[in-house]
Amino acid sequence: MSVNRTEGRAAWLAKAGFADTAAAERELDGPLLSGIATESGLVAALGATADPDLGLRGLSRLLEALAPGSDRDRLVAELAADTPHRRRLLAVLGFSSALADHLCRHPAHWLDLAHLDPAVRPDAAALRRTMLEAVGADPAARVPLAVGDHQDLLDALRTAYRRHVASLAALDLGDGLDVAAVAAELADLAGATLEAALAVARAELPPSAPLCRLAVIAMGKAGGRELNYASDVDVVFVAEPPVRPPAGSGDDGDTDDTGWLTTATTLATAVMRNCSVYTAEGTVWPVDAALRPEGKAGPLVRTVASHVAYYHDWAKTWEFQALLKARPVAGDAELGAAYVDAVMPMVWDAASRDGFVDDVHAMRRRVEDHIRPAEADRQLKLGPGGLRDVEFAVQLLQLVHGRADPTLRDANTLAALAMLTKGGYVGREDGAVLDAAYRFLRTFEHRIQLRGLRRTHVVPDSDEQLRILARSLGKKQPAELDEIWHQQAREVRRLHEKLFYRPLLSAVARLPGDEARLSPEAALTRLEALGYADPAGALRHIEALTTGVSRRAAIQRTLLPVLLGWFADAPEPDTGLAGFRKVSDALGTTPWYLRLLRDDGAAAERMARVLASGRYATELLLRAPEAVAMLGDDAELRPRERKPLEKEVLSGVQRHDDPVAAIGVVRAMRRRELFRVTVADLAADAPIEEVGEALTVIAEVTLSGALAAAVRAVEATRGAPLPTRVGVVAMGRLGGREMGYASDADVLYVHTPYPDEDESEAANAALAVANEMTRLLSLPSPEPSLTIDAALRPEGRQGPLVRTLASYAAYYDRWGEVWERQALLRAAPCCGDAELLRRFQALIDPLRWPSGGLTDAQVREVRRVKARVESERLPRGADPSMHLKLGPGGLADVEWCAQLLQLRHAWKVPELRTTSTPGALEAATAAGLLAPSDRTVLLAAWRQASAIRNTTVLVTGRPSDMLPKDPRTLAAVSQVLGYAAGQSTVFVDDYHRAARQARAVVERIFYDDSRL
Known about the structure:
It holds the Pfam family GlnD_UR_UTase. It contains 43 helices and 10 strands. Residues 1-6 and 249-256 have low confidence and may be disordered.
C-alpha cells in the first residue's frame, strides 16, 4: 500500500487498521522502518494482522533486539518482500504479546519461521529428540540424563518449549492450521517436555539414589492429544522397582525396602517443579497430578498393582471417565504400556456399574453448578453449549458402547466423534454439526489463550479485545464473532442434551459386558436365558439384521442387545423380534427410522413392547411402516378426532375417480389410525372406554369415506346425481361408541327421495350405494377388515337393505317388537345426509324411550329373548363360564341389564337416553335405580371382558369371545393386561370372580319380579 498524498497519513493508517495512528507514525518514521514501511506493502501486511498496533511495536522491538549487521539486514530484506515468512512473522507479532516477548528476548528465533512447512510437521519422536537435546540429554540413551547447571537447564527447557510454540503459532495464525493438528502437536510437545523435565530431574538425584522405573501417564487433553496453548498438563505417575520380585513372592511391589519408591517420588516431584517453577524464561505450565487415586490426598507415585487395586475397589465413575484418556508420554515406555494395559479393561467395563449413566449426568451438572456466575455467559469450556458439553457427550457414548465396539476406544474427542458417527451411534448430520462446532470453539479458545499464553477459557468482555479476536478468526466485527459463537453454542447444547441424555444409553449400560455386542454364541445363550421359544430362529433374525459393514447393520448391532431384553419382557418375544426384522427390512434404508430408535430410547422401548405383544400391531405396521414415526412423540399417540380425519379421507376420495383407488385412501387412514390406537392401548395403557371411542371414530370415518366413494361410483354408473338422500345409522357397538378391534359395523341404511324423483329409482340407487359400500370394504386386503352388518334392520336379513323414513315408521308402528326397540337404544347418526339422520333419530326416540316404560309382559319378553340368545348363540360344547359375551356375568349380562333399565325408565330420566353402556349404568346410579356398589361390580366385569376380547385380538390377530384355552395365548393375554409372567391362572380366577359378582347383580336387577 502506498500513501495517497491527497489524504492524511493518520487516516491512511486508521483505514489500514491501526488504532493508535500517532504511535504508528512514530514507529514507521523511526530509523529501522522508515526505509521499507511505505512502498513495500508492510503497512498493509501489518493491517492484515489481528492487532496491527501490537504487530508494529513488536516488529520495532525485534529489529532493535537484533544486532546491527547481517541478522538485522536479513530481517529487513524479508520485510520488504511479500512472502509467507513475512506473513507468519507478522501474524505472531500482531496477535500474541507473549510470543512477541519471546522473539524479542531470543531474536535469532525469528529465523525458525523462515523454514516452516505446514505440510511437514515434527512427530512425537522428533519433538522428544529436540527437547532432550535442549537440556543436554542423549535421546538415544535408555534413561536420558540432562547435563549442565540446573538453573540453566530449566531456562533451556523453557526456551526450547516456547521456541517451538512460536513456530507452531506462526503456522496456525498465518496459514490457518487445522485445530486438531495444532492440539495434537501441542500434546506431543508436552510429552517431549515432560521427558526433558524428567531428564533434568534425574540429574538432580545424588549418585547413591536407588534405581527405579518411572512412567509418566498423560491424562485429560494431553492424553487425548488435544492440548491447548495454555493449559495444565494432567498426569499420573507409575513406578516399579528396577527388578520385579519373583512371581508368587506375595510382594505387590509397593514396599520400600531399597528406597526405590522414594527415588520415584523425588523424580515425580521434581518433574512437576521443573515444568511449573518460574525462571528468567518464565514457566512452561503447571503439572497437575490430582487425577491420581485418592487425588491430592493419595501418594504421588504408585505401582501398577496398587493402581489396579484402587480402581478395582474404590474408584468412582468420574475416575474411569478420566482414565479413558490415559496415555504414556514419558519415562519407562514399557512400564507405561503395562499400566495402560492393566487399567483399560476396567475403563471399558465401567459402564456396567450401577448408576453409571446417572453418575456421569450428575457430574456434568456439578461442573455447571461451579461456574462463577460472573463468567457463566462467557465460558467457552464449562458452560452450557461449551467444550465440555461435546466432550461429556462423546465420552459417555464411548464408555457405554466402547466396551463392545473397540473402534470407539480413541482418547481424542474429534477422532472418537468421527468413529461414533461412522458406527451409527451418532447421526451423520449431528456428528458433522458437533465436529464443526467443537473445532470452532477450540479455535476460539486457542486464540484467547494465545494472546498472552494465559490459561483461560473465558471470552473477554472488552470491545477492543473482542475486535482483535474477531480479526484473528477472519471476522470483520465482534458482533459477527459473537453471533457465530452463540449459534454454535446453541447447536452444541441441543445435541448434548439429545445425546447425553439419550434414554437408550442407560439401557445399554445395564447390559452385562458380554452382551453389549452379541457374538452368535453369546446371542444363543442369552436368547435361551431370556425365554425365547425358538432361540435358533431368533438367532437367524439377529444375524440377518446385523451381518455386514453397513451403517444400518452397525446401528442394529447397537440396538439389538437392548431390544432383545425389551422383547423378552413382553409376552411374545419371538413375535417381537420377527416383527422387528420385517419392519427393518421395510424401513431400514429410510434415514429417519433407525435414527429414531437410536436417539429416542422411549420410542425404541415402545416399539419393542408393541411388536412383542402380538401379531395385530405387527401386521398393521408392516402395512403402514411409516407409522413407526409416531412412536417418538407422546402427542402422536393421542387418538385423532373425527372432524380432521374425515376431512382428510373425503379429500382423498375426491381425488380418485376409481372407487378402488378411493377406498385405498380410506384403508390407508384406517391402518395408520388403528396402529395409533393399538400403541396407545399397549404402551400407554389407555382405558377401555377411550379405546372404544377411538375405534368408533375410525370406523365412522371409514364408513363415511366408503359412502363417499360408493356415491361417486353409483353416480358415475348412472351418469347422473343420486335421486335420493342417503344416511347410515350406527347400531350395536358402533352406535354405543364401544367398538373393539374385531367388531363388525352394525348399521341401518335410510334414504328419502328428493321431491319429484321416482321412488323406485331412488330405492334402487340407495340400494346400489349400500351394496357398493359393502363391496368396497370387502375387497381382499391384508389388514383387518371392517365388515358391514345390517342384520338389525326391520325383518332382519329377510327385509330390504335400505328403507325410507316412511317405511321405517310404518314398520315400527305396525310390527316393531320389543327386541327391535331394544336394538334402537344404540342407534346413532353415523354418516351421510345430516338432516335425514336427524329426522330418523326423531322417529325412533319415542320407540326406544317409550312413554310409561315397559309393561310387565314386555319385560318378560326381554328376558325371554335374552335366554333364547344365550341358548342359541352359545357355541356347541362351549363352557359358558369361559364365554366373554354370553357367559354368566359376561358382556351380554351387563348390557342387557343396563338396557332394561333404559327401556323402563328413560322416559322419565333423560340422563338414561344414551347409547353407552357405562353411561347408562352411571345415569341409573345417579337416579337411584342402581346401587353404587352394583354399578361398580357391573362396570368392572364389563370392562374386564371388553379388555380381554380386545387383547386376544392384539395377541393372536383373530377375534374370539372365549377366554383363551391355549396356555401360551392365555399367558400372553394375561401379561398384556398387566399380570406377571406365570400368573395366567390368577388372571382366569380374577375374571371368574368378577363375572360371578356381576351375575349376582344381574339376577337381582334383571330377573327380580319384585321390580316389575
